[in-house]
Amino acid sequence: MPFSDPSFPVVNPNPTVDDCVKAMRWRDYFFVGGSFAGTWAYGYIFGKPARMPTASTASAIGLTFATFAVLQDTRARLMGYRENSTEVSKYGMHPDQPSLQAMAKLLQTNEDRARFPIATGSASPSTKPEIHWRNYN
User: Fold this and answer.
1) In degrees, to the nearest 5, what angle opens at C-alpha 2 toward C-alphas 78 and 23?
2) Closest to 23 in 3D by CA, of 85, 74, 94, 63
3) Closest by alpha carbon to 27, among 69, 61, 80?
4) Which of 4, 54, 85, 102 could form a disulfide with 43 if both were Cys (CB 3.0 to 4.6 A apart)?
5) What is the pLDDT of residues 22-72, one digit of tens each?
């Protein structure tokens, strides 16, 4: 969590799938159900020679999409990247909240190599010369 800069309070910096499922809102359940029903109807309407197999396949694809989308949204709320006032009131804030001052200090030191690593390729200086930064203003 030291390199993240969430806009909202962090509830869980590393949520599991179980945490995300437990933190689902009614909106998420309606999204999954609507996607499932909508893709089933789409498969039934446009799958004329074999309506039921096409509808079943389309609904499986729609359920998979909706599940991934809801888990991604819930994970973002728990990590503080989306509005999460409901989760904060229900679960509370994580004790270790990221601070922008600590992140700015970390980026000024040599410890920022984990976030911005130096690429070490097999190109020699004759094919890829070093950049002279004095030429860039």
Assistant:
1) 5
2) 74
3) 69
4) 54
5) 999 999 999 999 999 999 999 999 999 999 999 999 999 999 999 999 999
